[in-house]
Write a structure and sequence with these properties.
With 398 residues, the chain is mainly alpha-helical. It has a domain at 15-105. It is built from 19 helices and three strands. It has helices at 3-33, 37-47, 54-67, 105-115, 120-136, 146-161, 167-179, 183-195, 201-213, 217-230, 234-250, 254-267, 272-284, 288-301, 306-318, 322-335, 340-356, 360-375, 383-397; strands spanning 70-72, 76-78, 101-102. It has a three-stranded antiparallel beta sheet with strand order 1-2-3, with no helix packed on it. Strand 1 (70-72) and strand 2 form a beta hairpin. Helix 9 packs antiparallel against helix 10. The protein is elongated and about 95 Å long.
Amino acid sequence: MKKTPLSLFALLFLVSCGVSKQKVLTQVDSLLTQKKYESAYKLLEKADPNNQIPELTLEKVQIALDDYVFSENLKVFCFRDMAVDQNVEDFRGQQGSYVRYNLDPEQALSALLLKFPEDWRLYQALGEYDYQFYLNHDRNEADKGLARLKLAQSYFYQAANHQAADSKSYYHLGLVNLYLQDVKGAEACFKASLQAGNASADNYYNLAFTQYSLGELAPSVDSAEKALNLYTLIPEKALCAHLLVLASMALQDESGSIKYLEMIHQFQPQDYEALKDLLTLYVKKGMADKAQTDAQALLAIQPTNPAILQDIDGIYLQYGRVNEFYDFLHKMMFLYAHQDPVLGNLYFYQANADLFVNHKKSARTSLRMAKIYYLHSLPPTDDVFQVIENKLKELTAK
């Protein structure tokens, strides 16, 4: 009979805690919507100062990891209430006066696990903490953070295996798997993140990357296209276009390769390798006008660099497009009529084309013209003069 009042009291206490806890979480959610991060954290700290209630501690840890403006080893955190059009990234790394809040997420969550060993949300939060600690600290250690990554992977999988993972933790587990070179596992996680509602550009891009790495080329193109359409910044769009070029080339889809290489040129006009690959496809497919425009853009990157003309020369001659190469050279001679170093290179590679079609007399003339322009722009000791003399001797001997 004496136990009944105590049991009833305990029951009433638990119900009261549940109601109070839910009230706090509702208030915290409202504050977070308004980006009042410090106010939200202070409310949680007041309600659960010793980190005894899993739901409140989990909310604390999430705010600490996601919304701090300053952190010291992910054990001391500073927050800020801000306007809805501001972001925490705007204040990180900036000087300011903040209140410091002590929270060791690993210690707090591990202590709760001793009391609630089957609260799988705690494993998810520990995985998130270890992943963030790896990004901020451990990847610069001697073992490149391998131990921390494996710990994060273990926690994430324990949460996932007990239906406690969400789209964010699946996504981060996918990245952890990539770091650990488990590409197949990473692909499964990115797909799970997508199914859980993460239709972000980053998730689609990483899914596309894993699919490409696994030889799933058509799905990779589909995923990368979705990422490309979702990204808004030029560098990210260019990154997607590069992946799409690789997948298209692997599929031997030359039209697709041209499409995405043209995108790269639009996003990054100085991308030399993309221009060179594009020129190769234009020349191969007989797209003379586009090839000439592309070759001109290549040369414009550094007109006096002979290695660029060597690349252009090699592409045209590889496919036997000698007349088109002559056209290009003659137009460039007009365009760079007052730049002797460029003219020297143009005549030098015109001689190379002459030799390719066995026009020896024209080759001698082109080499002599190259020598004249080089003498105006290079020291007489430059190796190119010996190369020209040797070629002229060979042509005279023949």
